[in-house]
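Course assignment 3, question 2. Fill in each field.
Student: A.L.
Task: Predict the tertiary structure for the chain below.
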Amino acid sequence: MTFADWKSLSPATAAHLLHQRVASLPPAQQRAAVATLASESDLASAIAAAPCDAPLAGIPFAAKDLFDAAGLPTFAGSLFLPEARTEHLPSLVAPADGAFIADLRVAGAALAAKTHLHEFAYGLTGENSHYGDCDHPLFPGRTSGGSSSGSAALVAAGVVPLALASDTGGSIRVPAAFCGLYGFRLIPHHRWVADAVMLAPSFDTPGFFTSTATDMGATLDALVPVEAGNPKAHSPNPNGERAPRGAYLPLPGLDPEVANAFTAAASRLAEPLAPALAAELTSLFAPAAELYAIIGGHETWAIHAPWFEHYHDRYDPGVRARIERASTITAAQLAPALAHRIKIRAAWAALFRDYDFIVLPSSPCPALTKADCTLANRNRILSLTAPASMADLPVLALPVQIPDTGGLTTGLQVIAPTVSNPAFRHALALHG
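Answer field:
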């Protein structure tokens, strides 16, 4: 169902339908995806209370459980976070909405659920030993992707048409690719993420999922207005103005069928980068996954160090092991990683002098099976997503069908220099 479909329903009907759709999920998927669910009556009241002229009036939404909602606990996929966040004591619930949820309510949307995630957003697969692994709704046994697993799963299952998420190293882009969704990642230090539960502050970004291009456009219009005075906002070539110019770069490591699907989809949006420049960027981006892990891990350890000893045994084992490795990162490892980050940022800045947007693949493969959720595949994925993360760039994630797979998907990353850049609407119009 689209935004228009939800808007056509009465508040009571919308709330009842949403509860029916949650109930229709397998019990294990409900537990893995849904952290809290508004009661049917409370949801109906929230929908009814929205001003009719608000841009997202009538739209129920879900929010990743690292954004605070008044009166609800925020666990971030863990078992203990409310105990550790002293600002929430003694009640263990958020005293007020965080900025992201508050702004969604102002725009007219109604919070229906908070969603589980890969614990502390420290993973790309949606695995969680506490609440269960989050499956792709259409392909049980394959992951939804993470860390924004519950948010992606509820949109892909049609439970909600909009869900809030976060992206540090790919946590919107990967689930969007795996679940066939549209996604948008903003930038680090945005106020919507500044009061959320952090993983790595210089990389953490807010964002959201929708299931259709039209709904993504409506969400962007409501929340991320295009740059003022730019006539290229909604059309590839309005009024004879130059359309945004893009280029695509097919990074290595893609499964053959994914590479073919990427090239076909990217070619509809942009031209290929010149071979010499493509080779130069491929070489520069090659260590990005490893260097992102060093910088991000260093920041993650700084956040978890005050809690880690006390709550050590209550962490998800996989996340605990990752944090333990992060605790060993040295200054000698960090310095060259930061220096390379500067080089990557400079390369992106140079690209944006010639191009309005760049298209990269979002995933090297379709949604992974449990057996394939390995470190090697995590690194393959990060090799595609880390280059934009290392440069603090906003990204529009577009879904791409992989032919002859029965509906499995991958995705495109449309990367532009600013959040409100009209290139995002341009790419969305061409793709949608």
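Instructor remarks: The chain has one domain: 1-432. The first helix runs from residue 3 to 7.
Grade: pending
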